[in-house]
């Protein structure tokens, strides 16, 4: 039991080790939820087996309590005010139909257009001004929104895949924090005139986890596929770490209060998540309820879409909109106000 507690502590410590320094720590962090569950089961079972050993899972759970806190939130509802800022974030998977992705989804486009949030942030965004039904930017703009869109530098730019931010408030400035050639991953921002103040909104899409349930399908070369999977997970974590460093540096130089939302492709048990948490507050932790899972897939137990904010902002409410089931991500909705 002593060895198990030590292993649990080592697993918890992985969130303080950058994947750019020691990449195997990435895989240790994936085991943290399992460690918490096993320690909880031991806590329940040992009193009936060997009561004096209960101290070991209690110790492991106490040391791992920060991970329990970030896994589940149960915040009291706060009274909203008319001028609170509503922010929606959604990975739209290029507005393609769920699971097939070989044709556009008119239902998802309609949902994106008719959503009434004050700020709408889209990752894996797509628009085409040559086809009225696919010109999402114009359709949302016609609803009274100002926009800033980023088109990724891809070989096939027909539908301008990338990111977009739409605002009911005037956009005073906008820009790109970073972007990767040949990828829709990027970070963008806008500055909006919010009543008598200015707020900065970031929309980010970090490098993919490259985690596919079909990695081992239709092949007997399991060793080769396992190596490729490990390599993909390692490279993705290292890329996200570098992207987060750029994001943090940019945000800390902002002259205005800011909100950072998007598809981070990071679980709450990673170094990169804890790095963000070190500098910013997390909306789910401060104003959410439940587990906040954001994936609409077999990996439904993952929360990889996050929203952070700095000290000038207060989160009033945060929730995952599970009514939109067309994409492989659920949208997140947050309500914020200036302190």
Structure overview:
This protein is an alpha+beta fold. The chain folds into 2 domains: 2-71; 85-338, Endonuclease/exonuclease/phosphatase (Deoxyribonuclease I, Chain A), CATH 3.60.10.10. 32% of the residues lie in helices and 25% in strands. The protein is built from 10 helices and 14 strands. The protein has helices at 2-13, 25-30, 32-45, 55-63, 65-71, 106-114, 136-141, 222-252, 271-279, 283-287, and strands at residues 73-74, 85-91, 119-125, 146-151, 162-167, 171-179, 186-194, 197-205, 258-263, 281-282, 289-290, 305-309, 313-320, 332-338. Strands 4-5-3-2-14-13 form a 6-stranded mixed beta sheet. Strand 8 (197-205), helix 8 (222-252) and strand 9 form a beta-alpha-beta unit. Helix 1 packs parallel to helix 4, helix 3 runs antiparallel to helix 4 and helix 8 (222-252) packs parallel to helix 9 (271-279). The protein is globular. The N and C termini lie far apart (47 Å).
Which properties best describe this structure?
alpha+beta; 14 strands; 6-stranded mixed beta sheet; 339 residues; Deoxyribonuclease I, Chain A
Task: Please describe the topology of this protein.
Blueprint: H1 2-13, H2 25-30, H3 32-45, H4 55-63, H5 65-71, E1 73-74, E2 85-91, H6 106-114, E3 119-125, H7 136-141, E4 146-151, E5 162-167, E6 171-179, E7 186-194, E8 197-205, H8 222-252, E9 258-263, H9 271-279, E10 281-282, H10 283-287, E11 289-290, E12 305-309, E13 313-320, E14 332-338
Parallel strand pairs: 2-3, 8-9
Antiparallel strand pairs: 1-11, 2-14, 3-5, 4-5, 6-7, 7-8, 9-12, 10-12, 13-14
